Amino acid sequence: QLQLVESGGGLVQPGGSLRLSCAASGFTLDYYAIGWFRQAPGKEREGLSCISTKFRTTNYADSVKGRFTISIDSAKNTVYLQMNSLKPEDTAVYYCAAVATVQVLCVPHPKNYVHWGQGTQVTVSS
């Protein structure tokens, strides 16, 4: 059974950093797009970044470009989201999601993804 588990969330001060992990089980990371998303209270789920596990191409939303970095460790079947220069407006529940695909370039739009993790809370506050 395909499962995604996020971890690494927490409370951080503005300007700080966090690294989120998305551990995949029940499948190997071949020909998948793995995306990171977030949802703040009262707002729609927002796509942040994605990575093609086969081609290692990445894509970022403008809101996080230059601050967030997505990466993959195939040996650990895990995708990471390194978040730097965090702002209070980054506060949200962060999710990872997966979809099987042969496309070279992924798009981090929530409607494109099938399998979702349970989310991890990130709070940016002083």
Task: Please give a quick description of this structure.
By secondary structure, this protein is mainly beta.
What is the helix fraction of residues, given as a range?
Answer: under 10%
Q: What gyration radius follows from the Cα positions, in whole Å?
A: 13 Å
Percent in strands: over 45%
The best one-word shape is globular
Structural class determined from secondary elements: mainly beta
Count of β-strands? 11
How many helices? The count is 0
Oligomeric nature of the chains = single chain
What does this structure look like?
The chain is mainly β and 126 residues long. It contains no helices and 11 strands. The chain has strands spanning 3-7, 10-12, 18-25, 32-39, 46-52, 58-60, 68-73, 78-83, 92-100, 115-116, 120-124. Strands 2, 4, 5, 6, 9, 10 and 11 form a 7-stranded mixed sheet that branches. The radius of gyration is 13 Å and the shape is globular. The model has no long low-confidence stretch (mean pLDDT 96).
